[in-house]
């Protein structure tokens, strides 16, 4: 979905993802960055443009470029997807960052901005996350956000090599948001 939502704070700026971000993303995306995704690794700027166009076309998905708030440099991308405001839920995912941003406040800042908007602006009651069961780095990062592990959907997705993947599902509910928010703010302080 095309959108005009911009969120910023804590050194991070989330802007609508568009083709102008393709070169910045293509500069660091490789198979290691793309591990756990269900589409082939976009190799080069043209492939990244195509990936961006596909992301923009998906109903219920608001894709963002993650930028450095001061310099505008591209740090990565993340999305809301399966947004269903009438049901009160959304998932956050399709997230990847340049390795230089791994282990920094970048991911907590992005997730804080997205979660705050989901719970405090959109009034949603559930924000979910999922990751390939083999992507232990991502699962651990989601748990550090304050998300509760709900379970594993077996053979849920198809990997790019044709094998089946199990997905770990985690979520934060509206009543859990204050504690998760406080934890994220402490990490960002």
TrEMBL record:
Gene3D superfamilies for this protein: 3.40.630.30
InterPro entries: Acyl_CoA_acyltransferase, GNAT_dom
Transmembrane spans: none
GO function term, MF aspect, one: acyltransferase activity, transferring groups other than amino-acyl groups
A Pfam family recorded for this sequence: Acetyltransf_3
Keywords carried by this UniProt record: Transferase
Domain N-acetyltransferase, residue spans: 13-147
Protein name: N-acetyltransferase
């Amino acid at each position: 979905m095309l959108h005009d939502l911009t969120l910023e704070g804590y050194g991070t700026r989330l802007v609508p993802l568009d083709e102008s971000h393709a070169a910045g993303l293509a500069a660091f995306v490789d198979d290691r960055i793309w591990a756990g995704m269900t589409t082939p690794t976009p190799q080069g700027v043209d492939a990244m443009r195509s990936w961006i166009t596909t992301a923009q076309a998906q109903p219920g998905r608001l894709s963002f470029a993650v930028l450095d708030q001061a310099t505008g440099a591209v740090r990565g991308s993340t999305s809301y997807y399966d947004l269903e405001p009438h049901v009160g839920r959304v998932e956050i995912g399709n997230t990847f960052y340049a390795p230089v941003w791994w282990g920094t406040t970048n991911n907590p800042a992005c997730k804080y901005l997205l979660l705050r908007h989901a719970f405090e602006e959109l009034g949603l009651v559930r924000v979910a996350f999922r990751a390939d069961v083999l992507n232990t780095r991502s699962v651990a990062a989601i748990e550090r956000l304050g998300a509760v592990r709900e379970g594993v959907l077996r053979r849920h997705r198809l990997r790019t090599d044709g094998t089946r993947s199990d997905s770990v599902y985690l979520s934060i509910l509206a009543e859990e948001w204050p504690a998760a928010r406080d934890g994220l703010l402490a990490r960002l302080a």
